[in-house]
């Protein structure tokens, strides 16, 4: 619906309003925003309200009070139906006089026609009455405070936003409306709100409609209460509105930048104009100013920090801005201090800013030196990671080599065990063929049938051999051709058997014995002096009930294999222990040599800590009393790294401060991560003077743990022949 909104000026100012711009309509519409309105201007005739300038909504005569009807009826003959009174604000001559005197500041507002001049006296007489009536009506009927605030805030703000796009005269009129005093606006709002309950014009009063629409768009119930879901809807609508407004402002600003850069002939610009780290930026490229003006595809290729960090390649999209602008979004990393880039068509046509490349400075982030330190730290982490991976790889390779070596050695041991088993089997089989069960009048075993682990009695006729006069008799025995050495030692006892001087000994047969082997002696091992060894052939007896030969030889081969493995592992362990001991001794010797070297010059210079590590802070102590700088008032420390070849060059001279230990002075230095050697000299002044450079050799202290290793020294040998006198070899 359309609701008429009228503008009035105080009569006492005698101002003239343009009858085509002093009235306008407010046409509300439903949208995504609760306060969305459109203001439509209509060329209605000028209608003036009582008293001061006010903003009011006229209504029909449906349910007006009698007093209001009487007041309106007195004016109905002088105004159009449904509108307020016409007020004469001055004559044309008076307006022309004001214009001539420079009193009129708005030259666009014309005077009223002379047909309306006759109404001036009548309208002036009714102003006071109308004002008193309005005030009385306000005191009698107060509207809800929320409705007043809503009307008070909604209408002027939306009116002002619309008028920014209207013509100058309409803007002037409504700006006057926006300049109303708070009291006047509240008074008129009260009047309008009270009239809402009395009458409707063209369907509904504006304030009632606005409040109802606000409730509807906000998702409220008919009773005006707001639920939790409604509150969330309102919050979502507010957030959406905020995002839409920000996006609109952003597009407007980018469009302004695009137009300005196009007029200046600039190829590129970025938004936001101040590029900061860890943010997204949009790069704009003008194709028409470039060598790529005929290309359909535009790509950007670049990196950060002089092409050393985070390279990227992205496709640009054409924008709607005037001037053939293309754009893409790029994330600036937090480590960036500069962005370098070029444009190309994806193939071989480039725009590289006349071989200088395009670049954008990143503000508020790292500088060049901080980025260098960052790169060193990243390289250190990478080297540590690589070292761990390399160590793990070497460990796995070593484990694989060990497994393969173990497998090869095991196969060798098994082969050797098989060979030895074959040899033993051949010898033992020959022995078993020759071994008897007993020898008449020399020895025999009871019982005749026995097996492994049985206890048997071995009888021996003392008078049959060289032990006839021995006081004692002992058996020294083994089995299976003495395969396990001496395993049987027993003392003989006299048996009392007839037919000779018989002695016996109780013997436990070994479990895996096929053949028993023994000799007779006059005493135990290491004590006996006289032996009966069957004329150097020893005595042998077959075990009648031994285990099957095939099973025996399989077990024998396995035992030999285990024995060979154990012996080999003992040898390998001994070799490994020896190698570790040698490496440890070398490291200890190297450490002692280095400490001895560093401590040898402690009376002149030393550091704390004694071992300098990369990335740490070290304090250098210097005793000038033992150098050429003895007695100098000042001592300056000049330092660099990596034998004076470090990327940062020599550090600024640093004045050394007195130390707590006597005549020493000290200076503190931060050791970079890529240092492998610390180099320094001393001087008497900041600008030079006398130096202590250790006789031209400078002072050097090794640095441990750096990410850069000292390059190896190349030795060159030169042989010069000085015939016929001598040959001289030079080496360095």
UniProtKB/TrEMBL annotation:
It catalyses: [(1->4)-alpha-D-glucosyl](n) + ADP-alpha-D-glucose = [(1->4)-alpha-D-glucosyl](n+1) + ADP + H(+). Signal peptide: none annotated. This is starch synthase. It comes from the Eukaryota. Its EC number is 2.4.1.21. The lineage of its organism: Eukaryota, Viridiplantae, Streptophyta, Embryophyta, Tracheophyta. Residues 64-158, 390-416 are annotated as: Disordered. It comes from Gossypium raimondii (Peruvian cotton). GO terms for molecular function: alpha-1,4-glucan glucosyltransferase (ADP-glucose donor) activity; starch binding. Residues 278-363, 453-544, 615-704 form the Carbohydrate binding module family domain. Residues 142-157 have a biased composition (Basic and acidic residues).
